[in-house]
Write a structure and sequence with these properties.
By secondary structure, this protein is an alpha/beta fold. Helix content is about 25%, strand content about 25%. It is built from nine helices and 20 strands. The longest helix has 16 residues.
Length: about 375
């Protein structure tokens, strides 16, 4: 197998051999690529019939707050450090995710994100845009978000959009005026998710009818399911086509994950990762919040879960551990997220798509990662 060149330079042709996951199923053969996939040669196969490595679409994470000791809200080069840490774990594209903050903090963070979106630094995941998680959330359901929530206005969203492409925005639909905002933003092409909400089942249904596309970290920071009050979780389980979920096995019980998998056709996984990702136990920042990492989790001083240290390769392994076959798990850490954002050239291994690839051994450990044809910090196979 040959390597590939840095982003922005002419890339050499390269090949990978193994069990290749295509939209039509598994193929045993050779994948040819430079910055994009040029061809896939081979024959259909059951990958359990051989010992070859698995070649999957690169992971796509639509909810990334931090990693490597850095937080998106830090501004400056933090987003590049974060994108490099996650690329080493197979994330080939991502949304930089903000915290609820004063407008000046958001502007600083989005200015840095805008630069990263325009120019991908070597060794990093592609930053597709921003997931604005707040400040348009319910102040009574902040979770680990700082207390700077307020109602959305189209003017404020437009002001922030000038600095960086906002691809996804989390909104509490029950707040006054928000249903109309959901409708207007959705009609503009922005994906609007329901989250950090005290809304009822009926509020969720109305938001979906106004164009909301899904739910932010399903089960967390929203009204739960009860028999006579199905809440926002009930609206998601009954009506959602897309929803994100954090499969670190801390945020959501495995039984609840299985229920959501049966109910929501294109449930996809995110990390909700923080600055503590890839770092030792200790104290870190999440926006303006002080958080502590220990025992595999990240919490506020009162014990509230505050994001995670999950990486997408571990998310894949967790899904397989829950009983999903590898192809299904791959869709939920890659393809469905791409589909949610309307990105047909990512999240699938097809001629002409970006050469965003991960190679895994038979124990589902990463052995190679490629972002748009560039190899990221793993041995050649």
């Amino acid at each position: 197998m040959t390597g590939s060149s840095q982003p922005g330079s002419e890339q050499r042709s390269a090949t990978l051999r193994g069990n290749i996951l295509t939209p039509q199923g598994w193929i045993s053969g050779i994948l040819h690529f430079d910055g994009r996939i040029n061809a896939i040669d081979g024959m259909p196969v059951d990958p359990e019939d051989n010992s070859d490595p698995y070649i999957l679409p690169g992971f796509i994470d639509l909810h990334v707050h931090g990693g490597g000791g850095k937080d998106i809200m830090d501004g400056g080069d933090a987003v590049d450090v974060i994108a490099a840490i996650h690329a080493q774990h197979g994330t080939t594209s991502m949304l930089a995710t903000t915290m609820t903050s004063p407008l000046s903090d958001l502007e600083q963070a989005l200015e840095a994100c805008g630069h990263a979106c325009r120019t991908r630094r070597a060794g990093t995941a592609r930053v597709l845009g921003v997931h604005l998680e707040g400040p348009y959330i319910n102040p009574g359901k902040l979770g680990a978000q700082p207390d700077f929530a307020h109602a959305a206005t189209l003017q404020e969203v437009a002001r922030l959009s000038v600095l960086a492409p906002i691809k996804l925005i989390t909104v509490a639909p029950e707040m006054e005026g928000h249903l109309e905002v959901v409708r207007m933003l959705s009609e503009s092409g922005m994906r609007v998710q329901i989250g950090h909400t005290l809304g009822s089942y009926e509020d969720g249904v109305q938001a979906l009818q106004h164009g909301a596309s899904g739910f932010t970290h399903l089960f967390n920071a929203m009204t739960g399911f009860q028999a006579r009050a199905p809440g926002m979780v009930g609206a998601a389980l009954a009506h959602a086509r897309y929803s994100e979920l954090i499969p670190d096995l801390l945020h959501v019980h495995s039984g609840a994950i299985k229920a959501a998998l049966r109910a929501i056709p294109r449930l996809y996984c995110v990390t909700d990762s923080t600055a503590a990702t890839g770092m030792p136990d200790g104290d870190y920042m999440l926006g303006r919040q002080h958080v502590h990492k220990c025992m595999g989790g990240v919490r506020l001083a009162d014990g509230t879960l505050a994001g995670s240290t999950l990486t997408m390769d571990q998310a894949l392994r967790n899904l397989v551990g829950l009983g999903l076959d590898l192809a299904d798990a791959s869709h939920r850490v890659s393809t469905y997220a791409a589909d949610h954002l309307g990105l047909p050239e990512r999240g699938r291994l097809v001629h002409g798509c970006h050469a965003d690839l991960v190679v895994l051994d038979r124990q589902l450990n990463l052995t190679a990662v490629y972002v748009e044809g560039e190899q990221i910090g793993h041995r050649e196979v």
